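step: validate -> pass
step: tokenize input -> pass
step: predict -> running
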Amino acid sequence: MLTPGTTSWSDTALVFLVAAALVFLPGLAGGLLLRLRPLAALAVAPLLSTSCLSVSTVVASALGLRWGVLPLVVGSLVTAAVAALLGAIAPRVSASLAARRPGPSRWLERPVGPRFDAVWWTTVASALVVLLLVLVTVRTELRTPEALPQGPDTIFHVAAPQWGLESGTLSSFEIGRFNFPTWSGFYPAAFYAFTGTIALITGASVVVSTSVFVLVLVGLVWPLGCIVLALTLLGRRVVVVLSAAFLSVAFTTYPYMLMGFGVLWPNLLGQAILPAALAALVGVFRALGRPPYAVADRLRSGLVLVAGLPGVVMAHPNALVSLCVFGGLLVLGRVLGFMTRQPTWPRRLAVLGAIVLTLGAGAMATVVLRPASMLGTGAAGPERPTDLAWLDLLTFAPRLTRPLPLLAAVVGLGVVALLVRHRGARWVVPALIAMLSLYWFNIAVDTDVTRWFTWPWYNNAVRLHSVAILPAVVAATAGLLALVDLVARLASRRWSPTVATTVAAVVVLGAMSLDVGAQLDAHRHILHRYFHPKPPDSWVSGPELLALRQLSTHLPEDAVVAANPWNGATYLYVVSGRHLLVPTEKTNTPGDRRLLAASLDRVGTDPKVCAAASRQGVTHAITGGQPFSWAGSRVEEYSGIDGVGSSPAWRRVATSAPFTLYERVGCAAGS
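step: predict -> pass
step: emit ->
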């Protein structure tokens, strides 16, 4: 658990190494045993590791095993064994499929040069430079690894894995019991599987483990995924690596806004592994020889995709939906190409009819299958005037973030380049347009009709815009590549092609680097909003965490504490492990919890309240603190807890500003 004020960034080297090892090693071993080339294996490793870890937690829980190092090792070894078996079989199957018809085959991997060539070393170096850039960006706003984004969901995301370690399970089918002891169902818990396991191995708090894990996702996993996807779509060139690496962390919405907004950490994980999953999908459906590079041959690309799907699902459903949307557009492009190759118009019309029916069925499914809870998520109605909504869209600046006009211009150039120069990647253009269109309709219109299509992303502008960043990165990479090739063509009149390309890359990327200052300013601006808000927009501050920690020394280990979650006192669990009657502001459910929240101050006079307190084991209460800004009338739901200080059934134990701890000393007669 967290001991506030005891950990600095310089203390997290071991935590970082363990986090990186957990993210990369299981998947890297699996990828290499599947006989992927080293670069591909490195890029898809986090995707495969996410599946390995999340599935292992589910299996361990189903077998009644307490989660720990042993189930982790066994799960990793099983993953490696399966990968080795498939790695031995897959080449033979691919060769057999290729032998069915003469000539080049889509089933065979095309040679792309040495395994450790300039592209490999550039990728490794670029990943390290990008990681350093992320650290420089983040370090100024997250001044310690104990820093918490001040959002309503933060308490669950740091408390749930702590509860999981205490309970011995980090399974997606068990983690929801933190909120409700009798809960059953599914909740994507891959993020907690990572943060909880990192804390288990290193002894660091879940809060510190989470901060470090987020840096690994943002600084390593996401850039490597973007690099391999760009190589797959645009060709295996050093300039593609450099451009994709730089652009992967150039936008604000993803990854930086998702580091604080919500906070949507599970969504951050899902988006980080999405490029690798999409690269594998491209490998399955790529046209012959286009693009010239892929994760592997068609069969092994498919195996990577199938192996990675559990990780995508248990990372976040939005990642799966986004993969389906982008993958659907990719497949649609291939089918349209197949249609144009048909020798007769009747055949072309038949294929076109099948396309129309499929698209119609998909659109109908979004309407018929929409869950009412997701359809109604978020306040209805536009949040921005139409003209400002267009400005936000065109400058990649949602929710009052700083505009990025130069990046937007490069993306626009890239859209043209994709359509003209990269036939196999044209689907990226409708992918970008689709997600930005959904974003625009969400912030400028947001009617019941538009929600038919935005509900998979909870009708949330930030979620929608974050998904658009991936095709934007690919498009911008294509734009920079086009500029480099143009400058190289001009420079080749004086120098050799190699020198001309080098000069062109230096000129173009050097010019783009002049915009780094504006980008850093935009990124730090959004991080500051969530990590250093004004007091009314803060859930719990550092001094308040220290106060809760101090009060916890007066509590027995088996205490159950009632507190108003809107005042931040529920972070008591994070700093002490003491259990709360109402763990988060979303868990004041009908029954004992709601009764006690409203009436706990009457425990000494109302037998029903006394009986409920006894059933729930409530022994203490905490009052004080400042309600979160948009709590509104919901604070009144906890008036019974806030009022215990006026009841003779409660004795004041200690005060540590702004909180006061009380102990229950009375209960109504006849209960």
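step: describe -> Residues 489 and 500 are 7 Å apart (CA to CA).
step: cleanup -> pass
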